[in-house]
Each structure stands twice: as structure tokens, then as C-alpha cells.
What does this fold into?
Amino acid sequence: MNDPTHDPNAPRYQVLVCDGPSCGVMHESERLEEHLAGVLSQDPDLEGRVTICRYTCFGRCDDGPNVFVHRLAPGEDPYDEPDPDVFDRERGFYPGMTEETLVRVVRGHVRTGEPVEDLVDDY
Ligand code: FES
It folds into this structure.
């Protein structure tokens, strides 16, 4: 069986966690980020393919805490903010995340390359 997590050329992802005033302060998105980092630290294959970054605001504050999973292009810096058109081009917006749903999103989206349909939303 071909397991993409053992492929050094497997796609890498950036997980943008909103830390704006609503997601960050009211919905404590930092807790999500810390939980996800802990889960990734137990999974070296996934950890090597995922970079967690903070993002200022997706403009969907009432739905927070919100996250966007962005597939990195070859050579793209995982710590740079993506071009804004990424949000229109890719289906990776996940509103209202909990610790449990965020882990499910990252495992599902990164391992399959496809959005987690019951959690993804139009941006
Ligand atoms: S503060 Fe998170 S979407 Fe605005």
C-alpha cells in the first residue's frame, strides 16, 4: 500500500489558526493551536508535513474559532501568509473548531488531500 505520509515528496500543509479578537480572545483559539501541536508531536509523519501559523482574521468572527488548511506549493514558505486568492481557490475553511474536530480536520485533510466534507465550509 502506498502511504503518502512516508513519502518525502508528499504535499505539505499550512494550518492557519485565527487569533483575531473573536477567535483568539473570545474563543481561545490558542488552546486549539496548543492541542494540535501536541497531537502533531506524537505523529512525526504528520508533524513533518504540517506547519501551524496564526492568522489575523478571516472575517467570519461570529463562527470562530476558525481555521484554514492550505496546501503549500513547492518552495512556498510555510510561515508566510498565503496569497489572498488561496482562500477563493482552495476549499480549506473550517469554522467553529473544537480540539477534537481540528485534529480530525488535519488528519483527514492532510492524509487524503481532500477537505473533510462534514466540517469544511465555503469561505
Ligand atoms: S477573529 Fe477569527 S475570523 Fe475574525
Notes: The CA atoms of residues 20 and 56 lie 5 Å apart.
